[in-house]
Amino acid sequence: MRFGYLAVFIAALTTSAMAIEDSRVPGGVAIIPIEPDSRPTFDGKPVLTIKDNGQDLAVVGLPLSLEPGTHQLQNMGKQIPFEVRSKKYLEQRIYLKNQRHVTPNTLDLDRIKGESKRQRGALDAFDGELDTIRLILPVEGPISGPFGKRRFFNDQPRRPHSGTDIAAPTGTPIKAAARGRITLVGDFFFNGRLVVIDHGEGLKTMYNHMDQIDVREGQVVKQGQPIGTVGATGRVTGAHLHLGVILNGVSVDPSLFVPEINSLPQ
Ligand SMILES: [Zn+2]
């Protein structure tokens, strides 16, 4: 019991920075000390900052497409070099009955183009104050698609998996991973019914393939508040939640922000 209290006490002392892990690989995050109260940029985009024991830190999202090697964070006119290691993600082969979800027709492509633009706008935004960097698990269930897997749909190579898929029956409530503002609600060709929550400082979560959506754009939600339910809309083979975590406009491994993902069965 005493140990239990001690653990809680230590957890309470740990600041937000230590709540997430430094993982300098494509799809990971780099946590880099910076000048106090400055706004660093990476790849021309503003980067989230936090304070840890009086030290300002940049939390940089590293895209899955990033080449391993030396990269630079821009801070107060200076360049801060950091190393990115390579990471080999496994391959996943998915077979879909709907051929249009593999090779969309001309009308579909027009629709996809418009949707990508709306999505890009929501994911690139940098606005608002961050409440917490530590996110909660929105849905419990087995992992049906880990982050980063290189994917083939009906043997055609496609983009790597930009989120974590958690299998759950249609109708399972989805909780908001943290407080934030709803910045996108849609019904998209690939992602199905979706919601984007902007948590501030460029950190967003994305919920795809939903059945029911119970929030509207502009609404502010609390951490844990139900936003809708799991479904099987868009390009799917079964009901699941695709959870995306986006930092400085790039999709990063959700398990870095939601460590509970590591204890879900695969
Ligand atoms: Zn997915």
Task: Estimate the global geometry from the Cα principal axes.
Answer: globular
Bound molecule types: zinc ion
Largest sheet: 10 strands, antiparallel
CATH class of the largest domain: Mainly Beta
Cα-based radius of gyration, to the nearest Å? 19 Å
* The CATH superfamily title of the largest domain: Glucose Permease (Domain IIA)
Q: Strand share of the residues?
A: 35-45%
Instruction: Quickly count the helices.
Output: 2
Class by alpha and beta content? mainly beta
Kindly report the CATH topology of the largest domain. Answer: Glucose Permease (Domain IIA)
- The count of strands amounts to 20
Q: CATH architecture of the largest domain, please?
A: Distorted Sandwich
- Give the end-to-end Cα distance, rounded to a whole number of Å: 32 Å
Mean pLDDT: 91
Spans of at least 5 consecutive residues with low confidence: 1-15
- Topology as H/E string? HEEEEEEEEHEEEEEEEEEEEE
Task: Estimate nothing, just give the exact number of structural domains.
Answer: 2
Task: Please summarize what this structure is.
This protein has 266 residues and is mainly β. It contains 2 helices and 20 strands. The two termini are 32 Å apart.
